[in-house]
Amino acid sequence: MVKSGLEEKPGPNDVARVSQYRLAAHLGSAFLLYTLFLWQGLTHLLTPIQMPDVKSITKLRGLAHGVMTAVFITALSGAFVAGLDAGLTYNSYPKMAERWIPDDLWTFSPKWKNIFENPTTVQFNHRHLAESTVVLISGFWWMAKKAPLHPRARIAVNLLLGMAFGQATLGITTLLTYVPTPVAAVHQSGSLVLLSLALWVAHELRRLPKM
């Protein structure tokens, strides 16, 4: 899939480019397959623990899948950042240069193309998706703190919160240091770790058949 998305190099010294659409599709399909395998693996490896059927657990159960979706979408937006080298567009945080909303956010026509092809818009979206995901996970952790979770589920929730802030820190570091390959690679790997933890939490909270 990635090979089919390779674009021809205009000159002998130019770097080969990959279509951001193919890159995102490749990453997304890999993550989807990974989550399916991980879910099945956890089902076979972990002893299921029944949790009380109370309102707080029911709310967390639904929200856990929302967290997992938010992490997945944020990671997918990161593929567009990588494909367009959008991490090199504005290397400051929290503002983009001196502005909260840059002037070149909607310069492409038609407007929808900015979301997928304008490096400024792609970076802007990834920033705010990441921030929203951290806020969502923080809220989830706060709700889980008051719920009657079993110890293994609580460990998973605590690790999820810690990794969310760790991944955000990695992302900001990648941006401020002009995207060095080792740091960027760790940041990309961090998205998979975060997705794994979100899936583990959802797996722990799943409704089990009554014995």
Strand content: under 5%
Broad structural category: mainly alpha
Major sheet: order of its strands? 1-2
For the residues shown, what is the average pLDDT?
Answer: 94
Which stretches of 5+ consecutive residues score pLDDT under 50?
A: none
Give the beta-strand count.
2
End-to-end C-alpha gap:
46 Å
How many individual helices?
6
For the sheet with most strands, the description reads: 2 strands, antiparallel
Shape: elongated
The share of residues in helices is 55-70%
Q: Mind telling me the C-alpha Rg?
A: 19 Å
Q: What's the helix-strand series?
A: EEHHHHHH
What is the total domain count?
1
Describe the structure.
- The chain is mostly helical and 211 residues long.
- It has one domain (20-47, 57-205).
- It has 6 helices and 2 strands; from the N terminus they run ββαααααα.
- It has helices at residues 20-45, 55-84, 113-117, 119-145, 151-176, 181-205; strands at 6-7, 17-18.
- Helix 1 packs across helix 6, helix 2 (55-84) packs antiparallel against helix 4 and helix 5 packs antiparallel against helix 6 (181-205).
